[in-house]
Each structure stands twice: as C-alpha cells, then as structure tokens.
Amino acid sequence: MAQTSMNGLRHARTDSPLGPLVVVVDDDGALAGLYYADGHTPAPRPAALGSCADPDDPQIATVTSAVLGYLRGETDVLEVPLSSAAVPAATDLQRAVWAQIAAIPRGETRTYGEVAAAIGKPTAVRAVGQAVGRNPHSLVVPCHRVVGSGGKITGYAGGVDVKRRLLELEGVTLGPGPLVPAPDAPPSAP
Length: 190
What we know:
alpha/beta; Arc Repressor Mutant, subunit A; 2 domains; two-stranded parallel ribbon; 8 strands; 27% helix; 14% strand; disordered N terminus; disordered C terminus; EC 2.1.1.63; MethylDNA_cys_MeTrfase_DNA-bd; methyltransferase
C-alpha cells in the first residue's frame, strides 16, 4: 500500500536522461509535480512534495515510466493524468497559460508574446512568463516549448541547456542563437 502524507502527496526520485527528477503523485496516482532534483528553479516548497515514497510504488512507477519513455524517445506523446492538488491557489491567468502551453504541439514553439495574445492578454507578457515559471506539471504541460522573442532559448527550471535538449529531442530546429537565462523572472518549469 502506498504511503501517503497529510496532503495526500508523495514523491520519489528517479534518474533520467536529463539528470535526476522528482516525481510527485497524489492519492489517485495523478502527477502533482515533476521537478529537477538538482537545482530546480524555483525550488518546490516541501509541502508540494508530500512524503517520501518508494520508487517502486505502483502509481509513482506508472508516471515515471511514461516520463522516461518520452525522454528516451520511445514515444512521441507524454500523457499522464494531472492532479489539481499541486495548484490549489492557481490564478485564472495561470490556468489559462497552462492550458495554452499544453496545446502547443510537439516539435513547435510559441513565444511568451504569442501565448499572451492567445489567452486574450497581449500586454501581459511578463505575467505569462511568471505563470510559465510556476507550472508544476513540467514536460506534460510543455513549458519548455515557450521561447523568447526571435526564438531565443530563455530561462528554464532545469536550466537553458536542458530546455535546448528537450526542444532538440522533439525535433525543433534551433538557430545558433545564445542561451539566455531569464533576467529576474521565474524561469519556465521543466
């Protein structure tokens, strides 16, 4: 039986082609968070992780298997159920941004400005960037597909090198432009 915490979340660490990841699930086995174990920016609050669980916990293993299969190129689609437990205080704007980036097809990118326009808030580019940076469902809600103007590879929770690797894995043709850390703004999640 799975060990649960007071908030119903539990997590386990796993190795991946991108480095160690922390997979967080809720009591139903839905993904509540996916974080880079080494230096996720911003670092998740301990309450967002719940209790420590065995990596062989069947619900964690199911999500982990899907994530690893995607990262290894075994599948082009990463579908796992998403938990709302990770985002109880999410704003309407955050939810709109996350829904918009979830719709970006594999192999494509959108700029922060394009996401802002798509949600009907064309002047809210900075707020969109902050919402992207607070995405707890990284990879599944593919915030790595959101880039700076002109296609610049900007800040990312796992680092801009990881963002570039993810985009290359998905077949995005990247120019020789520089990797640009986000200035004083939360980076997009993994």
